[in-house]
């Protein structure tokens, strides 16, 4: 029996989440709505323009948010990542432990360097803009891969944000190679339109002959398949992934279970922060399919979880919220 539902690999970032207005973005020439990789001095310029408090610090990283979500719903996950032995790295490892996610990295074994940080700027329309300094996680490599943990997992899950890094791509490919050799299913997320738009060649290289499960949004699906509409894009994705989920924002999601398409309805909420919605969808969905739920049921869990997370600040729920979601869906069935 597998020890882990999901073995995740991805960037380890401490999120600094704060509210800004449109003027802040224009004054500081920040491109709205995208994740932009920046140098440390650029990130420090933005930090100096904001009064950062410790309570703004959150454990982050796309795949990390996903495996934490899976755990919150009752799954069991492992995460391979890279942080330094600085204040932010210690905070990050403590956060993983508190969320029940296993990792082989410890404060004692963490190397010298600077832990990556992501400034998450949320505007009044609930859109999030991210400026990320990767720090030591830019050197994430095959050295961080734990082959035994992969072998003891149902799925390996990789985030698309690793694709720009040559060593990150090699780590993704190595993890997938170990998974396939041991009949572990391969899942990944495109993560962000910019990853597909600017690193299409590298993304194709990682996807290779295809994956078992893919997560993306509508824009990413059309960018990757080079199609002009969703209907054509989802047909083309059948040649990329055996199964996939395309999130559609307020319109819910569409899931391909290997045979048919399943339309997943959205839950109407007042969104105040869309940061982490896709990560939450993937984590809740993977909990569902690894814990006895059908793809349709998993889609409902994921949709409701995503609606809850966008109605608050931060990309994560807690265990109590996750249990309330499961109880609500159980009662409605």
What overall form do the CA principal axes indicate? globular
**H/E series:** EEHEHEHEHEEHEHEHHEHHEEEHHH
Poorly predicted ranges (pLDDT <50, ≥5 residues)?
A: none
Strand order of the largest sheet: 5-1-8-9-10-11-12-13
At CATH level 3, the topology is UDP-N-acetylmuramoyl-L-alanine:D-glutamate ligase
% residues in beta strands: 15-25%
State the helical fraction. Answer: 25-40%
Average of pLDDT: 93
Rg on CA atoms, Å = 18 Å
Tell me the span between the first and last alpha carbons.
Answer: 29 Å
Mind telling me which CATH architecture this is?
3-Layer(aba) Sandwich
Number of helices: 13
Counted up, domains total: 1
**CATH superfamily heading:** Ribokinase
Biggest beta sheet summary: 8 strands, mixed
Helix/strand structural class: alpha/beta
């Amino acid at each position: 029996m597998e020890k882990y539902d999901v073995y995740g690999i991805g960037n380890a970032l401490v999120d600094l989440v704060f509210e800004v207005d449109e003027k802040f973005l224009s004054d500081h020439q920040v491109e709205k709505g995208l994740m932009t990789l920046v140098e440390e001095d650029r990130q420090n310029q933005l930090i100096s323009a904001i009064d950062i408090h410790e309570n703004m610090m959150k454990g982050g990283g796309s795949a990390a948010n996903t495996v934490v979500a899976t755990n919150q719903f009752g799954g069991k996950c492992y995460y391979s990542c890279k942080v330094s032995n600085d204040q932010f790295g210690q905070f990050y490892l403590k956060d993983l432990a508190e969320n029940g996610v296993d990792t082989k990295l410890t404060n004692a074994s963490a190397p010298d360097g600077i832990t990556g940080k992501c400034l998450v700027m949320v505007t009044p329309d609930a859109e999030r803009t991210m400026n990320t300094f990767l720090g030591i996680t830019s050197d994430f490599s095959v050295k961080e891969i734990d082959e035994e943990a992969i072998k003891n997992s149902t799925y390996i899950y990789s985030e698309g944000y690793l694709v720009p890094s040559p060593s990150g791509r090699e780590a993704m490919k190595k993890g997938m190679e170990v998974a396939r050799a041991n009949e572990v299913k391969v899942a990944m997320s495109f993560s962000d339109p910019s990853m597909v738009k600017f690193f299409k060649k590298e993304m194709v290289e990682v996807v290779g002959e295809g994956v078992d499960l893919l997560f993306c949004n509508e824009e990413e699906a059309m960018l990757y398949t080079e199609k002009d509409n969703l209907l054509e894009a989802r047909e083309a994705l059948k040649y990329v992934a055996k199964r996939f989920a395309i999130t559609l924002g307020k319109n819910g999601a569409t899931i391909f279970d290997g045979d048919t398409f399943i339309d997943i309805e959205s839950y109407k909420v007042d969104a105040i922060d869309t940061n982490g919605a896709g990560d939450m969808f993937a984590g809740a969905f993977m909990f569902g399919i690894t814990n006895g739920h059908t793809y349709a049921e998993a889609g409902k869990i994921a949709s409701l979880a995503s609606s809850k997370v966008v109605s608050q600040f931060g990309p994560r729920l807690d265990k109590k919220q996750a249990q309330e979601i499961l109880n609500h869906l159980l009662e409605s069935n």
